[in-house]
Amino acid sequence: MTVRPTALTSCEQSNRDFAETFIYQFILSQEASLDTPGWQEKACNGWTLRHSEKLDTAPLTDANGKPVGFLLGIAVDANGKSLHKGVKFRLAATDPGFIDAVEETITGCAGRYLFAVLTPEFQSVYTDPVADLGMVYDPTTRIVASSLMLALRDDILPNEVVPFDDIRSGAQFYTLGHTRDQRVKRMLANFYLDLRTFTTARFWPRPDTDLEVRQDTPVETTDLIIERLRAVFCEILRTQTCMVPLSGGRDSRCLIGVGSAEIHRARTLFTWRFHRQSGLDSETAKVIARRLDLPHEEYLFQKLTMRSKQTYLLRNGYAIYGTALRSLGIMETLPEGHVLPRGNIMGILRATNWTGQSEGPLNLTHAIRRLRLGEASGAAHSTTDRWTHEFMMWYQTLPEVGRSKVYDLLWTDIVLPHNQGAREYGVPNNFIVNPYNDRRLLQLSMQLPLAFRRRDKAYDQIAERTVPHLSDIPYI
Description:
InterPro entries: Rossmann-like_a/b/a_fold. By secondary structure, the protein is an alpha+beta fold. About 35% of the residues lie in helices and about 15% in strands. The chain folds into two domains: about 5-200, Glutamine Phosphoribosylpyrophosphate, subunit 1, domain 1, CATH 3.60.20; about 210-475, Rossmann fold (3-Layer(aba) Sandwich). It contains 18 helices and 18 strands.
């Protein structure tokens, strides 16, 4: 008997095409037969990957050439090389230390990706550094998927800890692995999912990961950031057909700067214009594009239909509402089939999660506030009291070196997977990737002194090194 994901039932009930609705998405399970019309199917060691034909996938093989899983999405390795043709690990699957070699490779990758490692002995799934290629899983059915409705085989079982009415109204936001269904968990970044037990464990940062602050050499550390970011972004420009967003802010300008050697390969630079701030961004972007002699396109506000909103929510598993809906109409007007490199994760350079804090003992109230949870309607206890237990379970997984960077890591591990990792499935006309989504870059960022980060010195140095001729154009 063929099994049907709840996502397919929802599509049929609302007259939506399944393959066109769940673009860039996937299911990994041991189900013998599953109805996913228009998708592709691949098998490895008892597991079947079913995925949108638009989602890039590549084989993983061991040193002997034996299949050991799949790479999904876009990944650039530690040497700055695209892995779109696949990965051959340096050890055989039966060699001692094989899984260490696998994790070494994964830790060195930038991009938006997922590794499904499927040998007879090791069966685990690893996300990118902020789980941008989002993933959920149901331990009761042993199903892994990109979003909630693909993971389900029956109706949603409401999550009573975070009521959906609070999510829909914007009063609360999902966090710490919660989804709309109480059985299905969102994968946090820098953990792997053991497919034998359907439990998770941290693999980065490791106890020996160097996160020590370089008080005396922030300039040298920032130069290393430029070098690595340039390698990643330029490789994406060389190997993908890109449209590159450009605003009047620091993130996109610095990204354009490090990619200056290859940015001409992009189809165009572009800016969204849907409110006053984005209008200022667009005017500044036009000036920058003219200065660089690069094409620029502007995409204007588009009114959303109710059906568009409903499709967006179906795609992302009813995970995120709010501001993302404001730009949804514009996202859908972009030409399809491109990679959109963005600078979002560069925000770690600002140390915004460290407001009023210094490295030292954990400030629990501040940490939970930085999870951006909102306030439950009619809650009998404070937000801190309600979430202390679950937060501390996550905190205890951090090695000592990680606890000194807790406010950075709660952002990468928890906040971004629940935000970007969910939201980007809702706008699938193009594949969004963040070149700064790289553990080496995150590590270097955390090595910068807090005072240096708070004064935007890293941004200033990147711009001075890469686009000094734009210094007279003010940031917006």
